[in-house]
Amino acid sequence: MKLGTLLLVGAMLALSACSTPYGKMGLMGGVEAMPVSNDTVRISAVGNGYTSQGQIQDFVLLKAAETAIARGQTSFTLLGGQDTSSQSYGQTPGTLRMNNFGGTTFATYNPGFTYNVIKPGQDVLVRVWSPAPGEQLPPNTFNAQEIYTNISPRVQRTKS
């Protein structure tokens, strides 16, 4: 591998280590399920500026699957949701450098730059339930165990 490729891969790994881990809601974000009714929960997931929208979607689906399984149900249906992402801006300071060359002073100014930070988030209403054998499933219904099996291995979890 070339040095440039190694540096790029290393930088990507370092940044991914900063993304929000799957776990309780905290300063870096997280995910939680709150009961709304006997068979409905609201799942909220929030990430930090290093977390992708795809990771937040995985958090919501995984939490829905875990909630269904914990309640002894086999399925969950996504009833609706809303994007709760937020955006903020930052500014780096400019720099002024003075150099003296042969008795003449030169000033070099590099202005700072403005950057934006997007923190992805989702609030989703989920019905957890077990369909009867042969029952027609409504749209947006998932098998909880399949979702858990497929998403759980790729989700970074908080250290206990």
Automatic annotation (TrEMBL):
This is Lipoprotein. It comes from Devosia nanyangense.
